[in-house]
Amino acid sequence: MSETGRTGGTFEATDGGSPDGEVWIVGATGRVGRGVAARLAARGLRVVPVGRSRERMSAAGAEAGLPAGVRMVVADSAERIADEVVRERPRVVVNTMGAYAATAPVIARACVSVGGHYVDQANDVIAVQGLLALHDEAARAGSTLVTGAGFGVLATEAVVAKLCEERPVPHRVRVDSVASVAVEAGALGVALATGIVDTLTSGGRRYDNGRLVASRLGADPRRLVFPDGTSAKSAGVASGELLAARAASDAPFVTAASSLAPTSPLLRAVVPLLGRLLSVPALRRLAVDRLGRVTVKAAARPREHSWGHAVVEWADGTRREGWLRAGEGMAFTTGVTATVTDLLVRGAGRPGAWTPAAAFGHDLATTAGGTFVLD
Ligand SMILES: NC(=O)c1ccc[n+]([C@@H]2O[C@H](COP(=O)([O-])OP(=O)(O)OC[C@H]3O[C@@H](n4cnc5c(N)ncnc54)[C@H](OP(=O)(O)O)[C@@H]3O)[C@@H](O)[C@H]2O)c1
């Protein structure tokens, strides 16, 4: 196996541009938003927190190292945030408020309307598809929209792109995303609760002969043994990783799996019923609300590393396997979003709507702190 990576570097803008204009961070009090704000402030960018509570934003801003009296935008819905974007024309909007299927198109369209750029960490099929559908609109306006700027999408699409480089179109691809995340004490939060409920209701998906078709959530569970000797189970899930792996390879048969999908026979048996129940709007709202209020205790990450994994097979029987090794999953996500934002603010993005490696190449994963381990 060979390893390639570098850590902590700053991606150079292709046009050598300097940072210019404001970077709005929607959800600056949240876990990803706080981390991104701290990294961007340390790089000297003009960070503007956007959210529904001035007090909470002030406290989070101080923690992130933003200057006292930093300008803030108070708005409490995607629509109100979009209105402010149109009025004030920030250079880049970082959307970490979650519920991306609903919030991402609203905020991204506002960015496009003023020729600004946009980045989020969406990871479900509907949200990623919805954002990528704005490609032509964004290209015409000269805006760059990046969705899936987090561990899941980048850590898997980057490995697929690396394995497929200068090779013919493969026949089959499987990707696995195994994030190792430290739990912060406190309420789970609506953003994460929405993600969990959406995963349960959307079931599974896979590409079958080039067509996106339904499959079972938790399909094809496997135990992965990582290059460092540790292991975890991973099973099928409908995710942004699936769309990104298909786009990076063009393979007709693609599956995506995650360690967050249910792998035990009992859970896999009850999940379809649970999904149907949670599809009822009133039950969905109740579940998101209750789950979002659940408080959890702080816990260390379960493994030292997070792993993105891909197996690529060609029609002639050739098979290649690769990994992206990263550290704590949330820290990697924060690093990916900060790196992408830095590039966007410097004018280094191609106009259009992309997943992160499609926008900036697979080496974005090493710039954000990952290391490729390839066979
Ligand atoms: N793709 C990946 O690999 C990846 C990795 C990590 C996270 N994520 C996703 O990224 C998202 C953010 O995660 P997180 O852990 O940072 O979530 P979080 O800690 O719950 O933060 C959510 C933020 O959004 C704000 N917010 C929520 N509703 C709002 C509204 N109506 N108006 C204005 N602001 C609002 C919250 O502000 P308040 O303080 O007002 O509540 C908070 O600042 C989640 O959807 C998560 O699933 C993806």
What would you note in describing this structure?
The protein is α/β, with parallel strands linked by helices. The chain folds into 2 domains: 184 residues, NAD(P)-binding Rossmann-like Domain (Rossmann fold); 179 residues, Dihydrodipicolinate Reductase, domain 2 (2-Layer Sandwich), CATH 3.30.360. The protein is 41% helix and 23% strand. It is built from 14 helices and 19 strands. Strands 1-19-17-16-8-14-13-12 form an 8-stranded mixed β-sheet. A 7-stranded parallel β-sheet has the order 4-3-2-5-6-7-18, sandwiched between helices. Helix 1 links the parallel strand 2 and strand 3. The longest helix is centred in the last third of the chain and has 17 residues. About 3% of the residues have low confidence. The chain binds NADP nicotinamide-adenine-dinucleotide phosphate. NADP nicotinamide-adenine-dinucleotide phosphate binds next to helix 1, helix 7, helix 8 and helix 12.
Count of the separate structural domains: 2
What summary fits the major beta sheet?
Answer: 8 strands, mixed
CATH class of the largest domain: Alpha Beta
Mean residue pLDDT: 93
Question: Which radius of gyration do the C-alpha atoms yield?
Answer: 20 Å
Query: How far apart are the first and last residues' alpha carbons, in Å?
Result: 4 Å
Low-confidence stretches: 6-16
CATH topology tier name of the largest domain: Rossmann fold
Number of helices: 14
How much strand?
15-25%
Helix fraction bin: 40-55%
Attached small molecules:
NADP nicotinamide-adenine-dinucleotide phosphate
Count the E strands: 19
Instruction: Specify the structural class.
Output: alpha/beta
- The CATH H-level superfamily of the largest domain is NAD(P)-binding Rossmann-like Domain
